[in-house]
Write a structure and sequence with these properties.
Structural class: alpha+beta
Strand order of the largest sheet: 2-1-3
Helix content: 40-55%
Number of strands: 3
Largest sheet: 3 strands, antiparallel
Order of helices and strands: EEEH
Shape: rod-shaped
Distance between the termini: 88 Å
Low-confidence stretches: none
């Protein structure tokens, strides 16, 4: 909840109150009792980020973002190449396995 500042136009008293954003402004001065209380427009507080999800890297420069993106792409390419090599070796192994299975079946048929 935000803090609002008020000043009384009758007696000059200044007060601060925690109020909901949707709450109506106060009108009655707690010191003099007159209906001359007025809400002041303040500068507000600085933004405070609490909790996870806000990182200093979210606000990096454009050059940093471009360098990070190119590095990420190069890592992805390296990963793809490694995956392709694994797939090729698996396909060679599966061909060899299928040949050995066929050979063992042929031996069983001849025996």
């Amino acid at each position: 909840m935000p803090t609002y500042e008020y000043v009384c136009r009758g007696c000059g008293d200044q007060i601060e109150r925690f109020q909901s954003i949707t709450a109506k402004p106060l009108r009655k001065c707690p010191k003099c009792g007159k209906l001359k209380l007025r809400r002041l427009i303040g500068t507000g507080a600085g933004i405070i980020f609490k909790g996870s999800g806000f990182y200093e890297t979210d606000y990096r420069s454009e050059s940093y973002k471009k360098a990070a993106e190119s590095e990420k792409k190069s890592k992805e390419k390296a990963t793809e190449k490694a995956t392709d090599k694994k797939d090729k070796s698996k396909s060679k192994d599966s061909k060899a396995d299928s040949k050995s299975k066929c050979a063992s079946k042929d031996k069983e048929k001849t025996a």
